Amino acid sequence: MTVNVVVAYDIPAECIAQIAATSADVRVRVLGEGTRAAFGGRLPYPSELTNAVPAAEVIEAMRDAEVLFTAWAGPLPEMNLPVAAPALRWAQLATVGFDRVDPALSGGVRFTNIGEMSGLPIAEWVIGCMLMFAKGWPGAFHAQREHAWRRFMPREVNGATVGIVGLGSIGGEVARRARALGCHVIGVRRSFEANPQHPLVDEALPPRELRSLLERSDYVVLTAPLTAQTRGMIDAAALQSMRRDAVLLNVGRGALIDEPALIEALRARTIAGAALDVFMHEPLPADSPLWDLDNLVMTPHIAAGTDRYYQRATDIFCANLRHYLAGEPLDNVVDPSATHE
C-alpha cells in the first residue's frame, strides 16, 4: 500500500532522494520546491521556507497525506487536522519545540520532534555568548565602531557558576560544555522533586529553588519549554534577585521572560547583560528598545541552526519512517497538550 509523505518545506534533493529510498511504498511530495533559491545562496532556516509555501498548496497537499515532515509554520498550526487531513496519522517536526501545535485541532495524529539534534549547536551558541561577555566583546565591538581605545579587565569563565533552567537534552549539552570549561553547574528541572544526584550537574534543584539558582549564578541559561508554569518566569522580581554582574541567556522561548522588565534591568544595569535568540514577538519589531541596548547580544532565532541541519533532520525522519512502516514505536514522541495552558 502506498504511503503518501508530504514534506512541507523545500529540502535539498539528496534529502528527498533519501526519504524516497526508505521504501518502494513511499510516495514523496515536496511543497514549495525552488523556494531555497530565493535566499541568494544563503542556507535558509526551515521555518523561513515553510512560511514561503502558499496556504492553498499546503491545504491541497494535506488532503491525502498520511505522513507529514514539517517545521510547523504557515497555515499548519491553525488547521483542523481531522477535517483538513483525514488520512494523516503521523507528523514529524523538524524542530525541538512543538508549542505551535494546537492539541484541540490535532485529533489522533501522533507527533514526533528531532529530539536531541539541536542540543549541540544550541549549546555551542550558549558557550560562545558566555565567552563573549566574559572577555568583554560586546563593549569592545562598540568601542571599535567609535574608534575608541578603551581598555578593560576580562573575566575568566573557569570557576564561574552556570545555572541552567530546564535540564533537558539542550540543557544537558550546555552542562557538559560548561563543566569542561571548569564551571560549577546548577540545574533546575520540573521533574526534580528534591535534590537528586545528576551526572551532568554539580547541583540538581527542584523548580521551587529557582530563586537560589538566580542568586548564585554568573550565567543563567534558559532552555525550558513554554508552559503555563514557565511563562513569564523571569519577571522583574526574578531579575532583581540575579547578581549585578550576571548574564541572562535565553534559547528556550521568548515568553519565558517578561521582556519589558528585562529591558529595564539592562538599562539600569541591575544585571550585566543578556544574550537572546528568542523573543516575545518574532521577527523582532523595528521599534523594539532591545535593538539599542549595548549590553545585549541577540540573534534571530537561529541558535539551533547548522549547515548540517537538513541532513540531520532527514536522518531522524527516515529512521522514524522505517519504524512507522514496520509498525514499530516511533522515536521522540511528544505530547502537544503538554506545552499549552
Concise account of the structure shown:
The chain is an alpha/beta fold. The protein is 30% helix and 15% strand.
The side-by-side strand order for the widest beta sheet comes to: 8-7-6-9-10-11-12
Number of strands: 13
Mean pLDDT: 92
Structural class: alpha/beta
- Global outline: globular
Which CATH architecture of the largest domain is right? 3-Layer(aba) Sandwich
Overall description:
- The strands form two sheets. Strands 8-7-6-9-10-11-12 form a seven-stranded parallel sheet, with helices on both faces.
- The mean pLDDT is 92.
- The chain folds into two domains: 3-117 and 306-339, NAD(P)-binding Rossmann-like Domain (Rossmann fold, 3-Layer(aba) Sandwich); 119-298, Rossmann fold (3-Layer(aba) Sandwich), CATH 3.40.50.720.
- It is built from eleven helices and 13 strands.
- The protein is 30% helix and 15% strand.
- It is globular.
- With 341 residues, it is α/β, with parallel strands linked by helices.
Itemize the secondary structure elements and their pairings.
Layout: E1 3-7, H1 13-20, E2 26-30, H2 46-50, H3 55-62, E3 67-70, H4 81-84, E4 90-93, E5 110-112, H5 119-134, H6 137-145, E6 161-165, H7 169-180, E7 184-188, E8 203-205, H8 210-216, E9 219-222, H9 236-241, E10 247-250, H10 259-268, E11 273-276, E12 296-298, H11 309-325, E13 333-334
Parallel strand pairs: 1-2, 1-3, 3-4, 4-5, 6-7, 6-9, 7-8, 9-10, 10-11, 11-12
Antiparallel strand pairs: 5-13
Helix pairs in contact: 1-11, 5-7
